[in-house]
Amino acid sequence: MQRMRFLSYSILLSTLFVVPFVTSAQTAATSTFDVDAYIANMKQVTTDMMVQQEKKFIDTEKIRTKAITDYLDIKTSPQNPGPNETIHVSIESYLSDMNKATIRWSVNGKVVDSGIGKTTFSFKNGVPNTTTRLVISVTTNTGENITKELTFRPVDIMVLWEADTYTPPFYKGKPLMTTQSTVRIIAVPNTTTSKNTLDGGGLVFEWEKDGITTKSSSGYNKNSFLFEGPKPYGEANVRVKVSSLNDATKSDFAINVPLSQPIILFYESQPLLGVLYNRPVDATSAFSAKEVSIKAEPYFFSNETLGQQINSYQWFLNGKSVNNPSRTITFRNEKEVANRSTVTFSAKGVRRTFQNVQQSTVINFTPNQASAPQF
Amino acid sequence: MNKRTLIIVSIAILILILGGVGAYFYFSQKPSVAPEETPGFPNDGGTPLPPREGGDVEPPSPPGSGMKLPRLYELHKTPVAGVGFAEIGTKSDRSMFARYIERGVGHIFETNLGTFMENRISNNTHPGIAEAFFGNKGNSVIIRFLDDKDGSAIKTRVQNLNAPILSFANSDESAGGSPSLATEEVYLPDYIPHMAIAEDGADKLFYLENSASAARGTTANTKGLGTSIIFNSVFTEWLPQFPSQKLITLTTKPSGDVPGYFFFLDPKTKTLSRILGNINGLTTLTNHTGNMVLYSDTTTKEPVLSLYDTTKKEFRSTPLKTLPEKCVWGNITVTIAYCAVPEQIPQGLYPDQWYQGVISFSDSVWKIDTKTGVVEKVFTPKIFNGHEMDITNLALSSDDTYLVFINKKSSTPWVFNLVKAADDTGIPPVSSEGSIPSIF
Hints:
The structure holds two protein chains of two kinds.
Chain A: H1 2-27, H2 35-70, E1 73-77, E2 86-92, E3 102-107, E4 110-116, E5 120-124, E6 132-139, E7 145-152, E8 157-163, E9 182-189, E10 193-195, E11 204-209, E12 212-213, E13 219-220, E14 224-228, E15 236-243, E16 250-257, E17 263-270, E18 274-280, E19 286-287, E20 291-299, E21 311-317, E22 320-322, E23 328-333, E24 339-349, E25 356-365, E26 373-374
Chain B: H1 3-29, E1 72-74, E2 80-88, E3 95-102, E4 108-112, E5 117-122, E6 129-135, E7 140-147, E8 153-164, H2 171-174, E9 181-188, E10 195-197, E11 205-210, E12 215-220, E13 228-233, E14 238-244, E15 247-252, E16 259-265, E17 271-280, E18 283-286, E19 292-297, E20 304-309, E21 314-321, E22 327-329, E23 336-342, H3 352-355, E24 363-369, E25 374-379, H4 381-385, E26 391-396, E27 402-407, E28 412-417, E29 438-439
Antiparallel strand pairs in B: 1-28, 2-3, 3-4, 4-5, 6-7, 7-8, 8-9, 10-11, 11-12, 12-13, 14-15, 15-16, 16-17, 18-19, 19-20, 20-21, 22-23, 23-24, 24-25, 25-29, 26-27, 27-28
């Protein structure tokens, strides 16, 4: 820039000295030459030219500064950070060497970091519904001053999800997502108090599954998203972008729904006490009664729908299949023979074929009263 | 009538009077025995009883004998679905009773904690009660069961224990025991997934109802009247607690690897406030004033018990590893909690596998003073009577002197007297268990 300015002044000065002589040579033959007036005139011309040239320089400088400002590449990671999330910011320019620039980073009016070539900066985003202002001030090595401001007003959302999978009645644990099960995610903006509902809070939700935006599920106040769980060893890769109508607040969230395996547990069922969920039947369980009922509980298989067969069940006794469509099976002691019998229960999804578990247990009949179990 | 006859008649009358008085005193001290109390559960087909680890423990003195009562006592020998307290009499002449409902037939019993005499107070029959909650100062019990005749629908009834039945034919009464109480049964809606009854003795309950993609919460009294919908949610997996009539808490259903959230719901204003969140395997227990919350975090694959002060918004860790479901808050000293703490915690997914019954604990009971930060062991059932107990459904009497609970291994109810008598040597001193009070 300085070189260019020097070149311009040189041209101007040369014009000042050369042009009068040329002009005087032309005019001397025709009229009397007023040197003083001429010099005054030329001074004025020169000044005007210099001003114009200076203006041109200033305009050029402005254009250049504007260009650098406009094309300053600012990258934030994550793009729409959530509350209290660490934000990584980096700048880059193809018009000026940022490694030689003096860069100052200010958060909410306070300079937090500065230095030559300080092109990256990290800071913590504010709490929900507060604005955090990040000002990046750059003085290039050629003297341009650039200022950029970013504001972050995060939305805090609480992500809840529920899988439409089976758990026994009165079970207090969460039904888990298993392969191919139906899952509903609900994103609830966190306001300190929300009266009576857990709704979308007047925000716009953009749901993305495996990198593809699901337009039918996205939109104003659409804070729930239904999807099918992944295939075995897959991942439920769901993201939601939440923003206000005027884009003043926005955040982007990746939602992690862990994939679990369906399990089968056996419980003793007694006529009066009901199913004894306090302890599953295992190889250490011993029965001396004439009749023993066992209930198989297929935890986290897809829930049954009325009038539609979702899962198929099969019992086996010592490897031989038993015709019993129910999840409860009863064994009676008809002969007094001590026995250890292997009971197997197989559950399989009719459509969701990856939901497929076979579980065995040993039924121990005590010697005194036991016999080979007969179905 | 000659003199001899007169003497014989007089002696006979005297003998009859003395005999009558003696019989009266004899029978008045004998507890009424219900057929269900006999060992062995009356089930068809001879199905064995579930193992009763604690069932063989006999008190050192028989109930009503006037001898010193044991501090730790098994109240009933067959499985129960819920346990609570009731008080009878004025403050100066008050008797404390533990009440519990049999799981198999639904009969309600009470034991006078001053004598350990047990009476059946209701013989309404309800087989297969899955869970029960005592409330309304012990005068109501919510019973919940599956109705296989109705497509395995979850049914919920409130049994209100009213005035004693005055009947000359009542055998219990003639035997000198407490008469049976008339019960009034109130039907609540079917398919209530979870519910809670006010823990401060108020006549209030809260229940949830779920549709395919929404939940709603309703308050009512134990008559099923005064219903008010106070909660609506697009999310359906909630576990409620009703610490006092002014506060309902809602915790998302937990799983060890899933972040959970915890809310306060004001029944009056219907305002929902988020209190805790993003905590894996979160389960909670709030004290009666709502300013202290015990919660567990399973991020480290163990249930680490912590405390949250809702007034100061302060988190405090405790040295204990247990689940809040194994704790109870004090009624008088609301900043004190008692927790059953597993002696060992095997590797697992908590609380999931404990709920499934896959993991069972052997507990000690600890006292947590949240004001002073002192944590100390109160007793270890295994050391005391040789039986391992997986303690759950804890409740404290209104004066904080008795702790009742259910041993999950046997589903039988137990009571522990927290006030140690001056001459009591029934329990090994805490120091002999190698426990030193610690401060958190």
